[in-house]
Amino acid sequence: MSRASLDKPRRPKNALKFWLNPPRLAQSGDFGRAEIRRIEQPVAEHQQKLLEAWDDFFAE
């Protein structure tokens, strides 16, 4: 294992990142547009629950 691989965390190419407020795509990885839309819908639908879970997690 090289030194560079120890210094930086590895991120899978098939990872998405969404901002929650407002819900929008931050990073798309290797996902296609149709896949992104399919994943984006439940993120938007459950925005409030996701924000509450985020707040609860970091409040502890």
Shape: flat
Compute the number of strand runs: 2
Query: What is the residue-mean pLDDT, rounded to a whole number?
Result: 85
Strand content: 15-25%
Helical content (DSSP H or I, runs of 4+): 40-55%
Sequence of strands across the biggest β-sheet: 1-2
- How does the major sheet shape up? 2 strands, antiparallel
DSSP summary: helix tally:
3
Order of helices and strands: HEEHH
Q: How would you describe this protein?
A:
The chain has 60 residues and is α+β, with helices and mostly antiparallel strands. The chain has one domain. The protein is 52% helix and 15% strand. A two-stranded antiparallel ribbon has the order 1-2. A hairpin with a 2-residue loop joins β1 and β2. The longest helix is centred in the middle third of the chain and has 13 residues.
